[in-house]
Amino acid sequence: MSEGGFESLYPFLYAKDSDVAAVLAEVRRSTEEKAQEIVELRRTMAERYGDLLVECAEAMARSFAAGGRLFTFGNGGSSSDAQAVTQLFCCPAPGYRPLPAISLTNDIAVVTALSNDVGFEVVFARQIAAWGRGGDIALGLSTSGGSANVLRAFDEASRRGLLTVGFAGYQGGKMAEAGTIDYLFVVPSSSVHRIQEAQTTAYHVLWELTQRALAAAPA
């Protein structure tokens, strides 16, 4: 981002005659504004997707109970979220059931080999093709909803009979149009920061609901 872009976001840092009290007041106002924005987004997500999260969690629980595995993927910050989802399901806090989960962003040798030899758009789809089987779960994240490699992975997962779960922002982008995602949760925001914060809340809720669904299932 250009210096002018930063100045428009944080004008108090660029004031020539800084008033410390005024700067602190502006920092507080900005922080409160962002906090209120994410609170409202989480409320909107709960109202819009509460029932769908329960339905998705029950479907995921059935998959896990039948021996299914979870594959997660995304780019950049969404790659970090994909790894966080894997950790959440695979290595939960004591008292929760560990579930088989793999992040397709973790093996840098595979990612770079596919990127170099074939193309970056296939780095997740080729792994789904190699590892995925009907009844597994493919969970992808994209703030824009338009990441080509995420869309290709959903194409492959849907073709192979995996349960598909997506997280997007804005209006859902191409993920909302793909027709290959069984459960899509769209954060209605144009701020990447707020989108990822709300997605984090949503996939933690999804994990907890999945755990509850598994615990409630007959042995």
UniProtKB/TrEMBL annotation:
Keywords: Isomerase. GO terms for biological process: carbohydrate derivative metabolic process. The keyword tRNA processing does not apply. InterPro entries: GmhA/DiaA, SIS_dom, SIS_dom_sf, SIS_GmhA/DiaA_subfam. GO terms for molecular function: carbohydrate derivative binding; isomerase activity. Residues 60-216 form the SIS domain. Pfam families: SIS_2. Gene3D superfamilies: Glucose-6-phosphate isomerase like protein, domain 1 (3.40.50.10490). PANTHER family: SEDOHEPTULOSE 7-PHOSPHATE ISOMERASE / DNAA INITIATOR-ASSOCIATING FACTOR FOR REPLICATION INITIATION. This is Phosphoheptose isomerase. It comes from Carbonactinospora thermoautotrophica.
